[in-house]
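#struct-pred

JT: dropping the chains for the assembly here, can someone run the whole complex?
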Amino acid sequence: MCGIVGAVAERPITEILIEGLKRLEYRGYDSAGVALLDASGAISCIKREGKVESLVQAVKDQSPTGTTGIAHTRWATHGVPSERNAHPHQSGNRFSVVHNGIIENHQELRDSLTADDGYVFSSDTDTEVIVHLIHKLSADYPDLRSTVFAATQKLVGAYGMVVSDSESPSELVVARSGSPLVIGYGLGEHFVASDQLALLPVTRRFAVLEEGDVAQITKEAVNIIDATGEPVRRSIEESDITADAGGKAGYKHYMLKEIFEQPEAIRRTLQDRLIEGKVADNAFGNGSLKLFKNIKHVQIVACGTSYNAGMVARYWIEQHVGISCSVEIASEFRYRESFVHKDSLLVTLSQSGETADTLAALRLAKSLGYSASLTICNVETSSLVRESDLVYLMKAGPEIGVASTKAFTVQLAALLLLSKALCEAKKINQDFCAESAQALTSLPAQMERAFSLEQPIKELAEQFADKQHALFLGRGDQYPVAMEGALKLKEISYIHAEAYAAGELKHGPLALIDAEMPVVVVAPDNDLLDKLKSNIAEVRARGSVMYVFADSDDQFESEPGLDVVNMAHANHLIAPILFIIPLQFLSYYVALVKGTDVDQPRNLAKSVTVE
Ligand code: G6P
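RK: done, full complex below.
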């Protein structure tokens, strides 16, 4: 979603802002803009619809200079993607603002700023009310920070914002509520961004702003006040993410790089957490084992790919831990009155840790009587990590491709480990504890073997190029894998793809089957294989073209209309983690054939920080 970069320095900052925007491109956006102030307070504001590249061209043509500035990539919410709706927005040829989030009372503010104060709006955005409000309030307050603080008191909704004032060109003021911002500390220069990745070329020292913080940033200092207006300090941490973490390392796309990073990501994630076959005491946070002993229900809440990971975990937790587990989409969970079981653990799953619905679900759950909240998350500085009682940090490394790959498999490894931790804490099911330890330890090497499927799948992908629809089938814990395979295909190839539990075929989707509807089946050699074979026969009998992903040489044979792709036999516990790999390759290569924007598919965002 939207990205923010800002800087106050001695040196010209245009390049720093543009490089920052490029590093945030992965988040998904549809326009970009920059506003620079020189020492005399002259403003240069340039905005373009479309990619940062168009902005770069315009910046080259106009060669603006400045030592204080703000920049933004916008993902449209209020108002179509266009130059006039792009940020920064301005007021009185004095104030400029970039904003992530949504101002919910924007209409009411717009009406009063227009009718009572005579402001003329030049965009359809909710953001523009912020800058006119700041302009209006500036007459009553002595400095920019107190003006911005006063403005935030009138805003309802979510914001991460950065404000500049041409009458005070050596400072920026930033404010956070519901949308993350980090301050970057340099030598005689300071920065702000919505994601530290944007600033890694210029600093590795960051402080994360807390909810309600408002900060003044100058070359020399960062002065923060909290939600009550009191001065505060936020700790400055050294980032361990390398500056080239955002690079493609020779791969054509981030997505392909991230597919191949999966074994290493899983090794890192299990390191120090699975020791000599046992889950380390505090692998899921201080006191987790003691707490797990009494847990009788697990409620998982997540969105998108993370939700699909949660769906797999339900099979593991109910079967192996023997307690109930529910999984719900966060945007549904947060708006209904759900039943809270006694001794329940709330688990949020999130790559980014900033997904607005998942975060809102966690905040809601805090008032509902859960025993504790655990997040399995990939970003240490994220809101979910900061607000959860227990944390399992995924260590997948930055995931840049919008279509999630390594976050999914790392989440699954963490969830299998969670099932084992619950069993160990309860002193039950030693067989599962031993088998899962062995399976997890062998997982990275098995994933590496599964990469040999890349070439055959690449060839097979051609056959999807002219298709409009595809159906994915699975049973048991492979049904969510089929869901994730379908999600991957629709996200990046724009082919409409649906997943069905194979046993449900006769209740509707069979009516759709013909030669134009490829059917993809995830078919490991497990207890449900015979049932699945009957489902496959039903589809075959109706003239469908099928692609079966299997792990046993003697169960299926390729024939006209039926392509079988075999991989090495997988232990049933980790089969869901291995079977997603061919489906990731499939969606990637179909997208390549179709020529879509693999890493930044249209209309989608990496981190969905608005509802
Ligand atoms: C967006 C991303 C998906 C991701 C989902 C949940 O839709 O494009 O890849 O699965 O958000 O994100 P989270 O960061 O909470 O896992």
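JT: nice. Residues 14 and 405 are 34 Å apart (CA to CA). The first strand starts at residue 3 and ends at 8.
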